[in-house]
């Protein structure tokens, strides 16, 4: 193991995580659902990386360009000697831009639910940043955050890119921001937020021509087949992702194409023809509505950056 790379730690919450239990609960509901955090096993994480490269999925390239353009300004706001903590780290591509500009960071702590994937990407980052202390943490940032404190307990700069905050209902998003705030030790949070825009553009981003988002959506059922021995017929469900303009969100479903039953953990689940299984919401904000949410969470909006077409925004929020 590289010398600057601590052995990945597992938080208690990751151990308690229970795909089977959550899936059974979700499928027993009168409106069936599967929690979106289960998208991200190794296959799902790779599919999400492929989504980020799609021509229709403007989010990743727009946010990456914003980071690159404003990296120096962001680094100045973060200050010196901070521990950068990334919530739901994914591919680590964006943090490389921040690390390139950061002023003598104390450490980088990426947190992700997918342990295997995190190990792969952190290993390659360690090779490129041999002097940086890396503290990968396998865990679920949606649960109470327990991040081991470094000696001298430095301020933290939280990093939560990709508009993952949009995958939480506004009240849950507020509660999550509140929890993040308490973990920052007086520092700030850099967060990426997708903006309300032309519904056609949003619709295209979640209904790509190559069908990668459909595969990503169906990976929830494929994962249940792989890990839990379920017998979902993947061709028996259709990807459906409309934009709900009144609620400012993309809603994602897997819709049963026929009357069918599925066996899972010794139980049988019936699906009517046309029955939806809700798998994800992706809320969109205006700059103002997101700043209001941050204030409700006890954070102080300081700087905000957006692109020329106002597709995406990055906010620097302070915790003190
Ligand atoms: C991770 N999250 C912000 C993505 C989104 O856009 O809501 C997940 C995603 N779902 C479908 N495509 C991408």
Strand arrangement, largest sheet? Answer: 1-4-3-2-5-6-14-13
Small molecules held by this entry = N,N-dimethyl-L-histidine
Helix content: 25-40%
What structural class do helix, strand and pairing data support? alpha/beta
| Run of helices and strands | EHHHHEHEHEEHEHHEEEEEEHEE
Distance between the termini: 37 Å
- Low-confidence stretches are 12-16
Radius of gyration: 20 Å
Mean pLDDT: 93
The major beta sheet can be summarized as: 8 strands, mixed
Number of helices, where a helix is a run of at least 4 consecutive DSSP H or I residues: 10
Strand fraction band?
15-25%
Shape: globular
The number of E-state strands comes to 14
List the defining traits of the structure above.
binds N,N-dimethyl-L-histidine, 320 residues, 14 strands, 10 helices
What does this molecule look like?
- The protein has ten helices and 14 strands.
- The protein has an eight-stranded mixed sheet, with helices on both faces.
- Helix 3 packs antiparallel against helix 9 and helix 4 packs parallel to helix 5.
- The protein has helices spanning 12-16, 19-28, 42-52, 58-78, 93-101, 115-128, 170-183, 199-205, 212-228, 287-296; strands spanning 9-10, 83-87, 107-112, 137-138, 156-160, 188-194, 237-240, 243-244, 249-256, 260-264, 267-271, 276-283, 300-306, 312-318.
- Strand 13 (300-306) and strand 14 form a beta hairpin.
- Helices cover 37% and strands 23% of the residues.
- The radius of gyration is 20 Å and the shape is globular.
- With 320 residues, the chain is α/β, with parallel strands linked by helices.
- The site of N,N-dimethyl-L-histidine (AVI) has 11 residues, from helix 9 and strand 12.
């Amino acid at each position: 193991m590289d010398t600057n790379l601590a052995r990945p730690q597992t938080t208690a919450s990751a151990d308690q995580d229970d795909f089977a239990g959550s899936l059974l609960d979700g499928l027993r509901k009168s409106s069936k659902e599967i929690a979106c955090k289960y998208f991200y096993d190794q296959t799902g994480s790779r599919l999400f990386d492929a989504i980020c490269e799609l021509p229709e999925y403007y989010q990743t390239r727009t946010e990456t360009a914003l980071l690159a353009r404003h990296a120096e300004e962001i680094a100045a706001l973060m200050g010196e000697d901070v521990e950068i903590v990334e919530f739901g780290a994914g591919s680590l591509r964006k943090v490389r831009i921040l690390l390139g500009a950061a002023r003598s960071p104390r450490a980088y702590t990426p947190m992700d639910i997918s342990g295997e994937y995190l190990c792969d990407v952190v290993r390659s980052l360690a090779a490129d940043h041999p002097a940086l202390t890396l503290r990968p943490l396998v865990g679920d940032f949606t649960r109470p955050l327990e991040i081991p404190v470094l000696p001298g307990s430095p301020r933290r700069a939280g990093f939560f890119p990709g508009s993952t905050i949009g995958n939480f209902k506004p009240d849950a998003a507020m509660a999550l921001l509140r929890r993040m705030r308490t973990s920052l030790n007086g520092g700030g949070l850099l967060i990426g937020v997708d903006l309300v825009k032309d519904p056609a553009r949003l619709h295209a981003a979640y209904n790509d021509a190559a069908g990668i988002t459909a595969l990503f959506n169906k990976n929830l059922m494929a994962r249940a087949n792989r890990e839990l021995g379920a017998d979902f017929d993947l061709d028996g469900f259709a990807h459906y992702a409309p934009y709900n303009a009144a609620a400012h969100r993309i809603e994602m479903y897997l819709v049963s194409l026929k009357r069918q039953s599925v066996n899972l953990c010794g139980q049988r689940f019936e699906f009517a023809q046309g029955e939806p299984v809700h798998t994800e919401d992706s809320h969109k904000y205006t700059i103002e509505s997101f700043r209001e949410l941050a204030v409700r969470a006890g954070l102080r909006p300081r700087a905000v950056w957006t692109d020329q077409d106002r597709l995406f925004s990055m906010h620097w929020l302070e915790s003190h």
